[in-house]
Specification:
heterodimer, A: alpha/beta, Rossmann fold, 4-stranded antiparallel beta sheet, 24% strand, B: 391 residues, alpha/beta, Transcription Regulator spoIIAA, 4-stranded mixed beta sheet, 6% strand
């Protein structure tokens, strides 16, 4: 199904989005689009509204104004069935993994499959085991989340997010709290999934090495102006962004040495 | 190529939206061709699995299996998971599998998902001597932890008196407000209705002896000796005991307890002492209040339904409460109840597990254990008072 992803075709489009918690405005007039089979990184300093934007895109926080189009359907105005069918195309990895504590890993990954497919139990188990293997958790299917380390929880969360072969995977700070090797492994996994299955990734992160490894495109959110400051390929932005803040963010604050 | 046989077992070939598999036997290997639509949406994978099982079991001599994809195939994870399973099946019997002819994306996924660890078995249940041993150990540990908890609490209270404690007065005051003043509305409602109900029940019986005025005796004695303390204790077990367990349990879940310990602050002194002490002080006050409101509940029935004057009812109440011991005995009980509720709630919270479901169990257990203990101890009090001629 995802063998030959048609590239350069936007799957997710955000138009003039305004986000707020009550009276507190978080983001204003944010517009961008994510292309099919690409990895879009949402970056910005702490508290700039990255996670809020993600919440809104995955259907947890309704926007004050603006539209979020998934395959040209507005997530926030479509009826209940329409929204469910959009959400079925989604996979979401939360910051802490957000695994269900009362279920072991296999059950955690199986639950979406049991809910949304007609597959038999043995196939579901095989599929769930395969997804766990994919994130390097083979042999841990009987473990409960409380018995795992933070990084393992995160990887199990990714396996669960991939359970239904989503078209779009939203990852909230996937490599935060992982050791460099595991973080690198995760980046490789993202790249390989993108290439082999054509999954679109929306990744919220501020880990620079990850950003340069995985991003095809990126947007930079700014906490001061509460807007989307710049958009483009991170390597390009680092050198050529017209905003000093974006350039120094991508250089970890090191000033440009001019010869 | 030498075609020995062309065995083609096809599942639902006529319907192209389903997945199927074709086997072609060569001299010393088999080529398995995968076709159709492999999707999580249609449930055709199970047919292919059956075909595979049958073929695999029928041909034990074949050593090498080659897999290839049809050019028209459409696939998602179900295909990868099927190949993954085939690889595991073949690995068990030491046969070789070749994925050379698969597209690079697919073989990458298969490579990534290659199991690196053997399946670890956990949480297996078996009835054996070990189980009995475990049970005995469990009860020993629980008993030990209860006694060490109580011992620590007593030590913390002694620390408080010697002035070396890390208990903060503001925590105590806050806790007093939340388990004292904030509980007034619910205590008012419950005790008023208790007094009212007892007056109604009593009046029906006493009317038969033409002794309706003794409703005042019945209500006031029952309230001060028994119902005031008991009702307040039950309300507080559900309200405050559960809150203690939930609060401390979630602090444990968030590693807040650990962080207190790393600062050298004992959670016993910092969290548990202010909570248990505030409940210990507030419960007798609430009980006195509940006694009064309960008597007022009886008064409402006495004046409105049974037409006694307010003065008459109060005079009768005064006669019934001939000694202060009636009230003190209720208060004595309530202090013990308060101690039990506070200690049980805090103990359960502190000993909840590391996941959300065990927190739920801890909260439930704190209420159930506290109420059970309250009822048992209440019965013990009444029996002893009666034998000691204190009633």
């Amino acid at each position: 199904m995802k063998q030959n992803p048609i590239k350069n075709d936007s799957i997710l489009k955000v138009e003039n989005l305004n986000l707020a918690y009550g009276d507190y405005q978080v983001l204003e007039k944010v517009s961008f689009s994510a292309k099919k089979g690409e990895c879009l990184v949402v970056m910005g300093g702490s508290g700039c509204g990255k996670s809020t934007l993600l919440k809104s895109m995955v259907g947890l926080l309704s926007p004050q104004d603006g539209r979020i189009l998934v395959d040209s359907i507005d997530l926030w105005t479509v009826n209940h069935e329409g929204k469910t069918s959009i959400l079925k195309k989604y996979g979401v990895l939360f910051q802490g993994g957000a695994l269900w504590g009362a279920m072991n890993l296999l059950e955690n990954v199986s639950l979406p499959l049991q809910t949304y497919t007609d597959l038999g139990q043995s196939e579901i188990n095989d599929l769930a085991r395969y997804k766990l293997n994919l994130v390097g958790l083979s042999g841990y299917s009987d473990f409960y989340p409380a018995q795992l380390s933070g990084g393992m929880k995160k990887r199990a969360g990714l396996a669960r997010a991939m359970a239904l072969d989503p078209d779009i995977l939203f990852l909230d700070e996937p490599s935060a709290g992982l050791d460099p090797l595991n973080s690198h492994r995760l980046d490789n996994l993202i790249n390989e999934l993108k290439e082999s299955l054509g999954i679109t990734f929306i990744v919220v992160t501020h880990e620079l090495p990850s950003i340069f490894d995985i991003a095809d495109d990126s947007i930079f959110l700014d906490g001061q102006t509460k807007t989307l400051l710049d958009q483009g390929q991170p390597n390009h932005l680092r050198e050529n962004s017209e905003y000093e803040r974006v350039r120094s963010f991508l250089r970890r604050g090191t000033p440009i040495i001019k010869n | 190529m030498n075609h020995v046989g062309d065995i083609s077992i096809q599942a639902k070939q006529e319907e192209s939206q389903f997945s199927y598999i074709q086997f072609r036997k060569e001299t010393n290997f088999v080529v398995c061709t995968l076709k159709g639509v492999w999707s999580i949406e249609n449930n055709s994978g199970s047919e292919v699995r059956k075909e595979w099982e049958i073929f695999f079991n029928k041909n034990p001599t074949i050593q090498v299996f080659k897999f290839q994809l049809d050019t028209q195939i459409k696939w998602d994870s179900t295909l990868v998971s099927f190949l993954h399973k085939c690889r595991n099946d073949l690995k068990v019997v030491n046969k070789s599998i070749k994925f050379d002819e698969l597209p690079s994306g697919l073989s990458q996924l298969l490579e990534l998902s290659e199991p690196t660890l053997l399946e670890k078995k956990q949480n297996e249940f078996s009835l054996s001597l070990e189980l009995i041993d475990d049970t005995i150990n469990y009860f020993r540990n629980v008993t030990l932890s209860i006694f060490s908890f109580l011992g620590e609490w007593v030590l913390a209270i002694l620390h408080l008196f010697t002035g070396r404690s890390k208990t903060r007065f503001q925590d105590f005051a806050l806790s007093c407000r939340s388990c004292g003043a904030s509980a007034l509305p619910i205590v008012t409602l419950i005790s008023f209705l208790t007094g009212l109900t007892m007056a109604f029940v009593g009046s029906v019986q006493l009317e038969k002896f033409n002794a309706k005025i003794y409703v005042a005796d019945l209500v006031c004695l029952a309230m001060v000796r028994e119902m005031g303390a008991l009702m307040v204790a039950i309300v507080m077990a559900g309200r405050t005991g559960a809150a203690f367990a939930a609060e401390i349990g979630s602090m444990k879940l968030n590693e807040e307890i650990d962080s207190l310990r790393t600062f050298g602050i004992s959670p016993m002194e910092f969290l548990i002492v202010p909570r248990t002490l505030s409940l210990l002080f507030m419960i007798p006050l609430l009980t006195i209040y509940a006694d009064v409101v309960g008597i007022l509940g009886g008064l409402v029935v006495g004046t409105v339904v049974m037409d006694f004057s307010v003065i008459h009812y109060f005079e009768q109440t005064q006669v019934a409460l001939h000694s202060m011991w009636e009230i003190y005995s209720g208060l004595l009980k309530s202090v013990v109840f308060g101690l039990i509720i506070g200690l049980v709630g805090c103990y359960k919270g502190l000993h909840s597990g590391n996941d959300s479901s065990s927190l739920g169990r801890a909260v439930t257990a704190s209420v159930v254990v506290a109420i059970t203990l309250i009822v048992i101890i209440d019965a013990m009090f009444e029996v002893s008072f009666s034998y000691l001629n204190l009633r």
